[in-house]
Amino acid sequence: MNDTQHPVDQALLTRRSIRAFLPREVPDELIRHLLELAARAPSGTNTQPWQVHILKGEALDQLVQRAQAAFNDPQAMAAQPQPYDYYPKQWVSPYLDRRRKVGFDLYALLGIGKADKEAMHRQHARNYCFFDAPVGLFFTIDKILSQGSWLDYGMFLQSLMIAARGHGLDTCPQAAWLSLQAVVTEFLGLDDSKELVCGMALGYADEAAIENRLVTERVPASEFAHFVQAHQAA
After folding, report:
1. CA 169 to chain centre
2. 78: helix, strand or coil
3. Which residue of 14, 32, 88, 99 is most buried, as measured by CB atoms within 10 A?
4. Torsion region of 76: left, alpha or beta (phi above 0 gives left; psi -120 to 50 gives alpha)
């Protein structure tokens, strides 16, 4: 089946992690609309575990200032609490290979050499200004909820990113904010019952930015999907 003109197909195929945004404003009404669409995501027994914190304007600038200061202070970074295990404690193939490739490809586009630690640090710091997006989102969940609710959350996040593409916007989901969990928690005024899931940049892509030329590869369905055959009777 090749129906790439279908609007849902287009939204899925053009969703990318954008790492440079235009300063173009995103109206509050549009943000609310995207979240209303995303909230149609399924969740076990309709628990709807998502909680969204939206930062724009002065609030966004204040958070970015604090985040950049913390990221550039080794002592502040060392004092950050350990987040949940987003990545495995031990990397193996093929996951390690895929991770390395996306990093190498991005740095190659940006002209950052493997030994250029200072340039790598500057690029990593871009996470903590939401890549200059006009909207920064944080997603939290009640700690009392279990693994199934985290699966539900993933469907909500994907729905939001696809809804954004359908309206001509772009996103970058960011696990990097977990490294500044204490900064985010304090700024948002979260209590101990809440867990930070991730952050997300939302806005309009700067198509002239070279880093936005990165399009990551995907394994074809023929390699990861298998039609199960009926068992022959004995």
Report:
1. 14
2. helix
3. 14
4. alpha
d(CA 196, CA 140): 5
3-state secondary structure 149-165: HHHHHHHHHHHHHHHHH
Query: What is the C-alpha to C-alpha distance for residues 88 and 41, in angstroms, rounded to an integer?
Result: 27
Q: Which two tokens stand for residue 227?
A: 């039609």
**Amino acid at the residue 99:** R
One-letter identity of residue 133: A
Q: What is the DSSP string of 37-76?
A: HHTTS--GGG----EEEEE-HHHHHHHHHHHHHHHT-HHH
Long-range contacts of 192-196 (CB under 8 A, 24+ apart): 192/143, 193/142, 193/143, 193/144, 194/51, 194/140, 194/141, 194/142, 194/143, 195/84, 195/140, 195/141, 195/142, 195/143, 196/83, 196/138, 196/139, 196/140
Rounded Cα distance between 126 and 140, Å, is 22
CB 209 within 8 A of CB 232: no
Average pLDDT by stretches of 10, the chain with 234 residues: 75 96 98 98 98 98 98 92 91 96 95 94 97 98 98 98 98 97 97 97 98 95 96 83
List C-alpha distances in Å: 82 to 62, 90, 128, 198, 233: 23, 17, 17, 14, 53
Per DSSP, the chain holds a count of helices (H) and strands (E) of 9, 4
Q: Tell whether omega for the bond before 27 is within 30 degrees of 0, i.e. cis.
A: no
